[in-house]
Amino acid sequence: MEGEDVKTEASKSTVFEMMARRDRERKMANEKNQKARQNKTEKEGIQYFESVFDGKVCEIETTLDAMVTSKDLVQLQEEFNSIVRDLQDLQKYFTSSTFFLSDHKIKTCQNVINQLLTKSDETKSRLLPKKKFGFKNKSSKTKQDSDIQDGQVKLEIKEPKRKEFLWTESQKTNQLLKYSGDQVNNQDLTFKEMENCVIFINGHAGSLQMSKMKNCLVLCGAVSRSVFADNVENCTFAFACQQLRLHSSTFCNIYILVTSRAIIEDCKDINIAPNTYSYTEYESDLQKSGLDGSINNWENVGDFNWLSTDMPSPNWNPIKDDEKINDWSQYINDFINAQNITSD
């Protein structure tokens, strides 16, 4: 009997081991199949994204290449407006897909979008040249003399003098500059070599570019397309835009509403927070710019010098709550007094 019990126990042990082995094999097979399905899903998702993204890029490029100067100016403007909307849709689609794209793919696609934006701006500048903005003297064309000689009416017209207004500001120090919506709407603004300056920009600019800025405060409304800045140091910015590119910059505080992924490169000590600056017409300017104020990717910052996915970039940080600017009026006044700033 004892021998039979031993055999029975051994048989049971063998059965249990076999069942356990089969259970392990089943679990391993399930994990393998699940991983395979996951990889297949991710692969199909990337392939679908590439198909849609490449198709839209090709469509926009084809439209731009097909534009000719013989078209009616109104029609050209409508087509450019349509391209702007297409680019915004493309940027939104790309931004919503970044969670499953590699850093290399993100960088490549963002560069493609930036090239399309540049090509669109260049094409528009070529086919729809901007009128030079200027402030006309109050005097208009007047009839200086009107004589009748030999039955002929003699008219002498005096041409008004014009004072041209240059959009690019440069080499300003310790100055306060203000720009109204009527001046900047849909315009491309550039500032360079500015130090200890305060710049107010209301309205909805087309784009904003800043270079070699030091210890400046730039408070801007909505920017329909991109904000690009390089070589800026110890500056504070506040603005809304479609995309932000920041290069070779240090010790900057940025209060931003951005509808796509912000990009930094060769930067350090960059502090970022949601935009809290506003003025009376801000919401109206935001709407007219075409930006979606309900979307803010201020925390979705891509650092091209930090490709690790396991650890956050050390080159930028969210601004701590106790360090945020809560009273902009007081901050502006303190900044102006500290830098001995005068109006331009």
Automatic annotation (TrEMBL):
GO BP: post-chaperonin tubulin folding pathway; tubulin complex assembly
One GO term in the molecular function aspect is: tubulin binding
Q: Which InterPro entries match?
A: C-CAP_CF_C-like, CAP/MinC_C, CARP_motif, TBCC, TBCC_N, TBCC_N_sf, Tubulin-bd_cofactor_C_dom
Please tell me where this protein is predominantly located.
cytoplasm
Q: Any idea where the C-CAP/cofactor C-like domain is?
A: 160-306
GO cellular component: a single term: cytoplasm
Composition bias, kind Basic and acidic residues: at what positions?
A: 1-10, 19-42
The entry's localization annotation reads: Cytoplasm
Q: Where is this region: Disordered?
A: 1-42
Alphabetical UniProt keywords: Acetylation, Chaperone, Cytoplasm
Subunit description: Supercomplex made of cofactors A to E. Cofactors A and D function by capturing and stabilizing tubulin in a quasi-native conformation. Cofactor E binds to the cofactor D-tubulin complex; interaction with cofactor C then causes the release of tubulin polypeptides that are committed to the native state.
The text of the family note is: Belongs to the TBCC family.
> What is the official name of this protein in its record?
C-CAP/cofactor C-like domain-containing protein
Lineage of the organism: Eukaryota, Metazoa, Ecdysozoa, Arthropoda, Hexapoda
